[in-house]
From TrEMBL:
Keywords: Membrane, Transmembrane, Transmembrane helix. Residues 1-35 are annotated as: Disordered. The lineage of its organism: Bacteria, Bacillati, Actinomycetota, Actinomycetes, Propionibacteriales. It comes from the Bacteria. Residues 1-20 have a biased composition (Basic residues). Pfam families: TadE (PF07811). It comes from Propionibacterium acidifaciens F0233. InterPro entries: TadE-like_dom. This is TadE-like protein. The chain crosses the membrane at residues 41-64.
Amino acid sequence: MTAKARRTGPRRGLPGRRARERSGQSGSHGRRDERGLSQSIQWAVLAPAIMLTLLGAVDAGVWLHARSIVQQAAMTAAETQALADEGPGRAEEVVRSMTGELADVTTSVDVGPTQVTVTVRARVPLALDLGLARVGASSTRARERG
């Protein structure tokens, strides 16, 4: 065996692993450790995506709540109008009292000889308004005969 084949450690003149670690170098190219930089780039990309997802979930909840309010207002207004022998003002008053936090609320009341139809439309105040902020509901109720 030659002397060259028996040598197992690092060659002389080149720093060993411990010497590279002490000097802050890693790898065979002498660069600094960039793992922290790649993690910060990952968070810079992921943080807005996570925030948009959370904001979208909150907006979906607000929209569903507003749709429920509009449906309930239409049903209550139709029932109130069917029981009252008055003009459509009573149904509009009920809708106005139930849809306080919604914007651009419009109420349409159709009083026929046998039934009452109330249609309610409103705009929901959303943080991410992508054109889906409109909700509407319609309810029909038979008129009471007296």
